[in-house]
């Protein structure tokens, strides 16, 4: 049976009607595709379709319940078909934080989202949360080397550079693991939160894990898709510290140490993200993320050059990676 026929039959069963329309909305950085299902002017839903040979929707469904029980807002699951990779969801509309960044409510929006951090962090661990251990963190970092440096820029590391790169990876793994470990959304940014009926809803939460306490605040405030003005970032970073500290999630960490962990967690996340952006182009044929590569490299450079232990990384990014990336992007 074709995927279109599977979609139609699934919707018919779920809604008990043949009177509906189903139109593509968008895809995302994964293999998932989304459709808006409407029934006249009465109601609408969102259909999530995942290729079963590439995506397991079980964590998405199971963690929906786990996070909802924590008092967080997530789209309601109306129906699912595990064998066909189909999930029918509550329609939350299309107003993401990314769509509200030019409004007068921007700072209030960020604060409201940072208010959610303790609740997310205190979510009980679940068997559906994959291990976020040293091997996995190192694997994420290697995405940068494999997909951006080697495959996209066609560069190879000298013996000295290989040693330095291994040192960078080892230190970042240490920093990620020595922080207090809490539940994190892991992709908590402007495109993954939706404003619906005066409430913020989390989406794309299926990769939630137990990991470093600074991770979600980094994801939001050092967003690969938008950059906060310096003064607003400084204020919101302090706000995120105060919220986590008040919830007892930072142990004896002071704000200076929090900033250090924040910066280095950002290094790990942004190295991974820059690699993923090029992987999406080369492996998946998705070129829509190329414009986010240089801003993400800027974040890496900015954080690395602040610390003596990452001066090699800062120099490598500034003098080797960024010039080659600019040439590559200028020819796209």
UniProtKB/TrEMBL annotation:
Coiled coil: none
UniProt-recorded name of the protein: Aminoglycoside phosphotransferase domain-containing protein
Organism superkingdom: Bacteria
Organism expressing this protein natively: Pseudoalteromonas peptidolytica F12-50-A1
Region forming the signal peptide: none
Pfam families registered for this protein in UniProt: APH
InterPro entries: Aminoglycoside_PTrfase, Kinase-like_dom_sf
Domain Aminoglycoside phosphotransferase: 22-237
């Amino acid at each position: 049976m074709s995927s279109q026929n599977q979609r139609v039959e699934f919707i018919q069963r779920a809604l008990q009607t043949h009177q509906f329309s189903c139109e593509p909305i968008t895809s995302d950085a994964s293999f998932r595709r989304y459709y808006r299902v409407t029934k006249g002017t009465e109601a609408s839903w969102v259909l999530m379709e995942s290729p079963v040979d590439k995506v397991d929707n079980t964590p998405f469904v199971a963690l929906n319940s786990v996070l909802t029980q924590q008092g967080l807002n997530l789209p309601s699951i109306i129906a699912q078909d595990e064998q066909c990779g189909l999930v029918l969801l509550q329609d939350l509309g299309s107003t993401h934080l990314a769509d509200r960044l030019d409004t007068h409510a921007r700072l209030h929006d960020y604060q409201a989202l940072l208010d959610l951090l303790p609740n997310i962090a205190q979510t009980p661990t679940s068997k559906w949360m994959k291990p976020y251990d040293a091997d996995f963190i190192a694997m994420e970092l290697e995405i940068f080397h494999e997909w951006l440096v080697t495959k996209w820029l066609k560069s190879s590391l000298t013996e000295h550079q290989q040693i330095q790169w291994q040192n960078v990876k080892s230190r970042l793994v240490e920093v990620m693991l020595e922080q207090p470990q809490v539940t994190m959304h892991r992709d908590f940014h402007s495109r993954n939160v939706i404003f619906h009926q005066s409430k913020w809803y989390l989406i794309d939460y299926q990769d939630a894990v137990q990991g470093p306490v600074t991770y979600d605040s980094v994801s939001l405030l050092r967003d690969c898709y938008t950059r906060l003005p310096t003064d607003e970032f400084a204020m919101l970073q302090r706000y995120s510290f105060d919220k986590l500290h008040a919830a007892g999630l930072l142990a004896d960490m002071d704000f200076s140490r929090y900033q250090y962990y924040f910066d280095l967690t950002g290094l790990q996340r942004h190295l991974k993200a820059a690699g993923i952006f090029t992987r999406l182009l080369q492996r998946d044929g998705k070129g829509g993320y190329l414009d986010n590569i240089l801003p993400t490299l800027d974040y890496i450079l900015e954080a690395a050059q602040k610390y003596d232990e990452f001066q090699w990384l800062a120099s490598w990014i500034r003098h080797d990676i960024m010039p080659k990336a600019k040439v590559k992007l200028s020819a796209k």
